[in-house]
Amino acid sequence: MDCENNNANSVDFIREKVAADVASGRFGREITTRFPPEPNGYLHIGHAKAICLDFGVAEEFGGVCHLRMDDTNPTKEETEYVESIKNDIHWLGFDWKDHFYYASDYFERMYECAVELIKRGKAYVCALSPEEWEEYRGNLSTPGKNPPGRDNSVEENLDLFNRMRNGEFADGERTLRAKIDMASPNIHMRDPVIYRVRHAHHFRQGDKWCVYPMYDFAHCLEDAFENVTHSLCTLEFEIHRPLYEWVLNSLGWENPPEQTEFSRLNLNYTVMSKRKLLQLVKENYVSGWDDPRMPTICGLRRRGYTPEAIRKFINMVGITKFNGTTDMAMLEYCIREHLNAIAPRFMAVMDPLKITIENYPEGQVEWLDAVNNPEDPAAGTRKVPFSRELYIERADFMEDPPKKFFRLRPDGEVRLRYGYIIKCTGVVKDENGNITELKCTYDPESRGGTPADGRKIKGTIHYVSCAEAKRAEARLYDRLFTVENPGADGVDFLTQLNPDSLKVCDCWIEPALANCKPGDKVQFERTGYFCVDPDSSADKMVFNRTVTLKDSWAKQQDVQK
What we know:
This protein is an alpha/beta fold. It is 26% helix and 22% strand. The protein has helices spanning 13-24, 45-60, 79-92, 107-119, 130-137, 154-165, 215-225, 241-250, 274-282, 297-303, 307-317, 328-342, 552-560; strands at residues 32-35, 64-69, 100-102, 123-126, 175-178, 193-197, 211-213, 230-234, 258-262, 345-346, 348-349, 352-357, 365-371, 381-387, 389-393, 413-416, 421-429, 435-442, 460-461, 464-465, 470-477, 502-509, 521-524, 528-532, 541-548. The two termini are 15 Å apart.
């Protein structure tokens, strides 16, 4: 697949439905969607699927997408999360323009709607505790029974609800329930709570309110207030849709929004629960919400993922009605494809072994031409230093190599990238038998081409010049968990954390890499793709490994084909 086509959206059942609604003129207004996150945490890759769908559908059909903060739970929401959500959506390439809203701005209107339901005999104040309610609600095989107070007069319920608002009741002492059907086969329709008492400071409304609407009541009203046409939700809200429709129909809403559900995005080797992600942050299992091992959008950004790669991944996953788990390797495939096209190549040595080219002039430095990106001719070239003393990767030399080992060996030859052919003539060891240095010679006539005698050299390795190289820090990230489905079967997900999910090592980089800025994406040749971390300084560059060069997912697809 071509990265240039990562914005193209395949046709799915939701887009087919919207197209049909546009053709029939069903709503009589422009297509309007919304993305309504609760500002109680940072967005993750699962939210990216909803963002791409909500904003993508609106854009494709000439409509608008609203960004609405669902701030109806005052105990968990913070301004920090609001700003992070806005930043992540913009980074993904979407804009809500002037359609930015808060659910809390509708609190008065929501309260009035609740009062209207009471007046219509469709809501009542209940004094049962959550534990007592369990006795009345019934279960999936047993119908519920009418609770005390269900038949109170309208006047009594209006008075009690007003007293709830005025703070006369403690948390949990009273609730407002929708009066629907205690025998409904859908347990969510058995007189659900639509308002509860909560004496808590709201980060925007302060202490103005001590009653707050439940999500199922607030969500449909917010959509209706904003003239949303298509309310797109993940599948867990399918069973809540009858309540969504009941509230709006009970209030006599004309041409109300319609809720449609799609499957959420699940990735293996990670968790998507905000509660679990918050626990990882609060208990210092990771360095923060933007830790590059986290599935958060800011974590992926810091690791070096691009919005283009994420949008391509979402498009490849597709929109369906079937829950499933997506292989992390598919996401890695998408970022490899994009970085292969845009990331300049550099040389860096992770585990250095010194070589001395004994027939190369002492003190001489040649600056060789190196291609920045063979996939992008416009990327140009740069200069890399070549000298008598170099570092190569320790793994690129073996004293007793197996067959088909095409790197350096005693009396063997190899080409140095962009440079000369060298031959290993000696091995220096310490008192413990560890190799500390290789003695080599070079062929002065072999620079950048075939040797004069026509001999063929199968191996090419990278290197850095000892004198000119800069020391840097490389952070090598791996899966955060050791199992595909952390926390399954009741296992504590924290016991399945990968102890090797982060390895930090020093490396030696060519001089040009020291000019990179935080956020720059590069390829360390033969090693992997890396991103410059914000922790970098003039004294020491820090690189996060985005992904290795090995593409297991693409290989799987080739096998299947």
